[in-house]
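PROTEIN–LIGAND DATA SHEET

This sheet pairs a single protein chain with one bound small molecule, flavin-adenine dinucleotide, given as SMILES. Inputs appear in the order they were entered. The predicted three-dimensional arrangement of chain and ligand is reported afterwards as a token string under its own label.
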Amino acid sequence: MRSAELTLPGFIHDICSAVYPFGIGSPFFSLLPLFQHGLEWIHPDALLAHPFEDGRVSFLEQSIDATANTLGGDAFSYIKICKPLAANWKYIVEDILAPLHFPKYFWALLSFAVNAVRSSEGFVNKYFKHEIAKSFFSGIAAHSMLPLDASLTAAFALVLALSGHVFGWPIVKGGSQKFADALLSYYRALGGHIVLNTPIKTLDELPKSRAIFFDVSTKCLLDIVQDRFPDCYTRKLKKFRYGPGVFKIDWALSSPIPWKAKDVFRAATVHVGGMHDEITLSEKLVSNGKHPEKPFVLLVQPSLFDKTRAPAGKETAWAYCHVPNGSCLDMTESIERQVERFAPGFTDCILARSIKNAQDMERENPNYVGGDINGGASNLIQQFFRPVSCIKPYRTPLKNVYLCSASTPPGGGVHGMCGVNAAKLFLSSIIS
Ligand SMILES: Cc1cc2nc3c(=O)[nH]c(=O)nc-3n(C[C@H](O)[C@H](O)[C@H](O)COP(=O)(O)OP(=O)(O)OC[C@H]3O[C@@H](n4cnc5c(N)ncnc54)[C@H](O)[C@@H]3O)c2cc1C
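PREDICTION REPORTED AS:
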């Protein structure tokens, strides 16, 4: 959660995360008085726009009915799936974000799980008849960074869509840095002390403490701990798999993006990928180690809703696409060509751009191994058992040394729950 003038003076860009369905829906963050410490959510009019080349557009709206109205002939199916889940979503989300356990709200979770385990492909073919709804759902499922015929990819779409219907997909006023600042300010108010800009290379660099929580990748953890883990645990960590990387662009723009479908201005988040088959192909190629010619692009246009992000009359935009892990290919042209398809004249609006390939992402933050922003592939096994197969994956073999990054359940995204789950485990060990 960082923001900076990556392109030109006065243009504030979110360096990594930008939109916070899990931030606002996090059972933990919602307990903290972050508003008193400067956090201000901005809820765009629509949560997500999915434009098509012919000028049509479907929207994820806070209202399920309003969303369904943009899904043509599949409106009724969408309502039938989402309404019962939305009614129990606050309970379901508690179970989803916890480590592997017997569910607290068993029946509610079961109603979600029967569809969630499906692949996105399986899901859209079962429930939707038309391309519009199939494309809309596939775009959300593509956040999984998995091929869309993989089990559990439907879960990503359902979790993101339902979180939107219940909590929203807000951005942060002033940039995502303000979210981090609010957390730091609250922590300091509690007496917490933070040392910044100090990369830790070995365990010996750390002061004596009752417990150590590592918010790092498995690769970093192995480097830091060196040979102090038992061989079998080291072997297991080395087997942990990272997923595709991302190629990211930030633009300073002279005007709003000239979308063919004007209503796209209603949403901060835009899925630029067109039809279901194209999105599926793009994600398939990436999972096979190839770079798509027409990548599925996740784009955010925050300055339309937050005037603090750009000088008067100017705009910013943020986008990334998935690429093979460790890629150093420049995807600028492919991404801009994709946006141009849905917004002719887009490239004429570009004043400046900042780009980062997957290797740059890792150089900037070693947690993004090979550019993977989710802390490891979220396939069926690794989503539940990360980074190793055990019920309490936060605990390492070293006494009171915990792992609490996105390489532990529930995985990537800004929700704080990996840390909460690890902290609860430590607290339960000192109480018992
Ligand atoms: C381009 C991009 C877009 C994204 N968009 C979204 C989004 O819109 N919404 C969303 O919810 N999520 C988004 N994410 C994903 C989300 O940011 C990550 O999944 C999440 O931040 C991972 O949390 P973490 O605690 O594992 O690691 P991080 O948030 O990366 O925190 C780990 C911190 O530890 C530091 N660190 C690592 N190693 C060491 C070391 N050895 N010594 C000292 N410090 C160290 C890192 O520099 C970093 O500051 C995005 C990520 C990226 C990169």
